[in-house]
Design goal:
binds adenosine-5'-triphosphate; alpha+beta; five-stranded mixed β-sheet; 16 strands; 431 residues; binds magnesium ion; 2 domains; Rossmann fold
């Protein structure tokens, strides 16, 4: 036998059935996609789909060269005989804004957009952390807030409620202020951390040089007291930033949405300012963040567009669905209403016709394919979970009757004129 070829490490197949170490099925996924389609529509957001590959420079410029995502995790390759560097997208915001600027989508009006799809990061795979993972994100472009900041939080809260996982998610918020305020804080932070440099771990020493704000993100228990005592961004906010943040919190309070203020919440990417937030859970180990986002008022301009105040978030679909699978609710029922079987000469074509008739009448109808005996077919019908079965038999073709079987209920098995098929089913269903 030829050797089997396996999937790339950290990249999952979605199957019709659950896998031992990956419980999410394609049907579960699709049910989630349906939920997302309805949810975004309810809020008046419109979908955007961009390519999975972009010029590497897009991510370097928007996400930042010194971030882990761009510095360590991108899948980058040469194209065009080595003349162009391309990368698989590690997140959706850069591509979305690239497209908005390219097509001048915000020329006439602000835009409320959403996207969904695969992202790629070369990370160490573990539960809730993959090399191909998926995100749903929204981007609200051209809104100053803080009303839009609160709207997108409420939007998340509604989705958690619909999926039955509200009690497992905590909203953490912070404000990063504007560029000048961040610069002032950064100077104080660097001075403070430099004074404590020999107490830092290697990772933090590196970040102190490249991206000092990220030191505050450290999960190392030994660094917690240093980080907690570090200069806080909140203390550097000017009046406008304070007002924005206060307005945001007042709206959350008014909407009855609970939150925890986390002055150390900085987010991993360079482009954020003002409001930032994360929804975290204690149910997924160290893969705690299910959804994160914030404002990136300078990003459109940085990508060559007009200055456009903007905010967005992205949620990790795998992490979210692992939570929903274990603690929440999502109806991923793919059971057919009717299972059609055939027996004997001429019955296949007749069965196909009846099956199409049933589908046209709105019944999800699976048909047996093959040439096994009726007994084996009935076993398949049972395995399909179908509520009803239709048996099209050679002997009944000439007198124009078919046999209906109630697989789960109390109606038993009846033979009826073919033209009464739909009507009989309707009656059974309503009883
Ligand atoms: P983490 O700190 O867990 O690495 P992050 O800050 O890198 O997350 P973001 O760039 O903010 O993540 O992406 C938004 C969301 O996408 C995350 O909150 C998470 O739910 C999901 N996500 C990010 N990276 C992965 C991954 N490698 N596998 C699965 N989901 C991911
Ligand atoms: Mg990460």
């Amino acid at each position: 036998m030829a050797q089997k070829i396996q999937a790339v490490k950290g990249m999952n197949d979605l199957l019709p059935v659950e896998q031992k170490d990956f419980k999410l099925t394609a049907a579960f996924w699709q049910a989630f996609e349906d939920t997302v389609n309805r949810w975004t529509k309810r809020y008046g957001y419109r979908q955007i789909r961009t390519p999975i590959v972009e010029q590497t420079g897009l991510f370097v410029r928007s996400i930042g060269e010194e971030t882990d995502v761009v510095g360590k995790e991108m899948y980058t390759f040469a194209d065009n005989a080595g003349k162009t560097s391309l990368s698989l997208r590690p997140e959706g915001t850069a591509s979305c804004l690239r497209a908005v600027v390219e097509h001048d989508l915000t020329y006439n009006a602000p835009q409320k957009l959403w996207y969904m799809g695969p992202m790629f990061r070369a990370e160490q795979p573990q539960k809730g952390r993959y090399r191909q993972f998926h995100q749903v994100g929204i981007e609200a472009l051209g809104f100053e807030g803080p009303d839009i900041d609160a709207e997108i939080i409420a939007m998340c809260a509604d989705l958690w409620a619909e999926l039955g996982i509200s009690e497992h998610l905590t909203l953490e918020i912070n404000s990063l202020g504007n560029r000048e305020e961040r610069a002032a804080h950064r100077a104080a932070l660097v001075a403070y951390l430099t004074a404590h440099e020999n107490e830092l771990d290697e990772d933090s020493k590196r970040r102190l040089k490249t991206n000092p704000l990220r030191v505050l993100d450290s999960k190392n228990p030994a660094l917690q007291s240093i980080c907690n005592a570090a200069p806080r961004l909140l203390d550097y906010l000017g009046e406008a930033s304070q007002q924005h943040y206060a307005g945001f919190k007042a709206l959350l309070d008014g909407l009855g949405i609970q939150y925890v203020e986390n002055p150390r919440l900085v987010r991993g990417l360079d482009y954020y300012n003002q409001t930032v937030f994360e929804w975290t859970t204690d149910k997924l180990g160290s893969q705690a963040t299910v959804c994160g986002g914030g404002r990136y008022d300078g990003l459109m301009e940085e990508l060559g567009g007009r200055s456009t105040p903007s905010i967005g978030f992205a949620m990790g679909i795998e992490r979210l669905l692992l939570l929903v699978h274990e603690y929440g609710r999502l109806n991923a029922d793919v059971v057919p209403d009717v299972y059609v079987m055939q027996q004997g000469e001429g019955s296949t074509l007749a069965a196909m016709k009846y099956a199409r008739e049933l589908r046209a009448a709105g019944y999800d109808t699976a048909q047996y394919s093959g040439s096994q005996k009726l007994k084996a077919q009935i076993k398949r019908a049972d395995q399909s979970g179908a509520h009803f079965a239709l048996i099209v038999a050679e002997g009944e073709l000439s007198d124009g009757t078919v046999t209906l079987k109630d697989m789960r209920g109390t109606h038993g098995q009846v033979t009826v004129p073919a033209q009464d098929l739909i009507q009989t089913l309707q009656q059974w269903k309503s009883e």
